[in-house]
Model the fold of this input.
Amino acid sequence: MYRNFAIVPRIIFGRGSFNQLADILKQRRTPGGHMVFVMDDVFQGKALEKRMPLAGKDYVLPVNVDDEPKTSYIDKLVAGIKAKGRGVPEGIIGIGGGSTLDIAKAVSLLLTNPGSAADYQGWDLITTPGVYKVGIPTLSGTGAEISRTTVLTGPEKKLGINSDFTLYDQIVLDPELIAGVPREQWFYTGMDCYIHDVESLTGSFINEFSRSYGEKSIELCRQVFLEDHDNRDDKLMMASYFGGMSIAYSQVGACHALSYGLSFVLGVHHGIGCCIAFNQREEFYPEGVAEFKKMMKKHDISLPQHITAGLSDEKMEVMTTVALGLVPLWENCLGPDWKQLMPRERVRQLLARM
Ligand code: NAD
Ligand code: ZN
Done:
């Protein structure tokens, strides 16, 4: 069976396109309604916050992403919005990196679906469309702007709310917004995109759809991270979008599976966790890892070492279980016989080396 998947229906791209946000939202506004701007708190008091096109009872809801999004945080934000007594907002606008984009998606869904965000971690468990939502990346690489998931850490697992309803209704891709990202963060999140491309292009699930997007995305990553271009922010923003489209119809692989384990137990953020895992994956991705090392050298990046050293047996076991739980990722990387090729003890050894 071929998957019949939805994509983001409306996209605006270009430097300064953020200035058109007021017009875009105007079409969705009704008398007495209001919208909530879910904004990364890194922009509090900054110029970008002042540019939010607030109207009527709209407000900015700053969110903190020091920790990657948790289901309990989503529940708290949704309860806070409801407690304002202004009714259900008619728009949620997410402004930030992958974490904030995921928070805004989840908030939109939980405003119209009962219970906790943790109830919906999995595939196609959402039954009611969320509130109209707009995603505006300020950091590029994750592909969260285009994906049908919102990755959340719950009490038991790190797993997305995967559904067609999770997709943004509109995205605004304005390369000017990613100009001020600190260098290391820019690199780690950009490498998330590069790793999406390598894992998609070399995986057993590859098809011409995913290859078309993945090849363009990896070419843009090479221009951004190995060459020098004035418009590198434009290129990285499109690489992220294309990388997201590539994995939408294929899958990521072993590096992502291992990084989920690191993230669940140690709270390591996605971008850097993928870099740590990828740096040692020559056996799966020889050419990709060699090129990645060149990119690290050019941008003078040194990764943390031995982050799993000294972890208790219990924690190593949890980490191994989380990593092994990502079945489609292993299957994409190693094919249908992945269980023979990657017994539990080997996964644990790979994690222990990081
Ligand atoms: P992030 O959103 O966690 O942000 C990283 C840091 O950069 C934060 O401190 C943030 O405040 C800061 N930041 C963001 N924009 C900035 C700017 N313009 N200037 C200065 N600082 C800025 O980082 P990320 O790598 O974009 O996202 C990682 C998250 O995305 C993880 O939670 C991961 O699980 C998720 N993710 C989601 C998908 C998806 O498809 N939904 C895919 C991959 C990753
Ligand atoms: Zn990723």
The CA atoms of residues 36 and 59 lie 5 Å apart. The chain has a mean pLDDT of 97. The first helix runs from residue 21 to 26. The domain at 183-352 is CATH 1.20.1090.10 (Dehydroquinate synthase-like, alpha domain).
